[in-house]
Amino acid sequence: MMKRKPDVIIIGCQKSGTTALEKYMTQHPDIWMTGTEVHYFDQRKKLPIDWYLSIFGKHKEKIVGEKTPAYIYFKDIPQQIAEVNPNCKIIICVREPVSRAYSEYQMLRLNGVTKGKWENVWNTRHYLKRGLYADQLKNVYKSFPKKQVMVVKTEDLYEKREKVITEVFKFLNVDETFKPPILRDFHKGGHGKFPCLAYAARFLIQCRRFFRKFKWGWWIDDYLHYVVMLIKIINKKKGYKPMSKKMQKKIEKYYKEPNEEFYEMTGIRWEYE
To answer: Which of 21, 116, 180, 268 has the most CB atoms within 10 Å of its CB?
Structure first.
């Protein structure tokens, strides 16, 4: 019996509206998405491919897929996906990179992963590198033809929701006249109220990564995902203090040339003062 393969994967980018897009896609009767991030190609690659394909095999919808926005950041993953299914369609959400980087920082603070001030950590980890969209997109095009790749501007997803969702359904070759209900703003970023809960979330996230190494760890990982989400809901106070104008200008300068290259590739641009 042939194993069913993912028809679509949302591979990025982190903190760019991928959860909202997946929720809208899942509303469509012809689309099934995993709902939680599988992380097969970056954290579970030691597991057999049959384990990965079994996630999709029980579903009869026309389109089945997953969302793991970390995938786009790793150069070898697009090729690995192509080896599993060369006909897979790839969706990439891109958000204005300065706000994306700051949003990721706030998320990691909420998760207890980082404690430093933004002014001290902005050029550490991968905050800025994840916003170099042109390089990442060129890497995707090495493994997939452009007709199989859709780039969604995050700001358009919120400001022109109906138009973008229709284009996504058309890209996936499902009924594009279907109108999913408008979702509430459930995924807005925020800051933590209680440091102890942030550390609890961090510990559980580390546990999730451990259990992802095992076949039988799928259900534990899934359970812990919802526990972490509950902790974050309890701990999160929506909204956070904006970065200083000085830092904003500094990082905008960093992205000036990469953004222009990305504009030439996609026609997507963010205007800075």
So the answer is: 21
Taking only the tens place, the pLDDT of each residue in 170-227 is: 999 999 999 998 876 555 666 567 777 777 878 888 888 888 888 778 778 878 878 8
What residues have CB less than 8 Å from 145, skipping those under 6 apart?
Answer: none
The residue among 270, 177, 190 whose CA lies nearest residue 231 is 190
Determine contact, residues 86/47, Cβ cutoff 8 Å.
no
Residue 213 near residue 45, CB atoms below 8 Å? no
Check if the beta carbon of residue 227 is closer than 8 Å to that of residue 240. no
Contact 45, 68 (CB under 8 A): no
In this structure, the strands spanning 190-192 and 236-238 are antiparallel
Task: Say what the pTM is.
Answer: 0.88
CA 267/CA 263 separation, integer angstroms: 5
* Helix (H), strand (E) counts: the chain: 12, 7
Asked if 105 contacts 251 with a C-beta cutoff of 8 angstroms, the reply is no
DSSP-derived secondary structure letter, 243: P
The answer to whether 30 and 75 have CB atoms below 8 angstroms apart is no
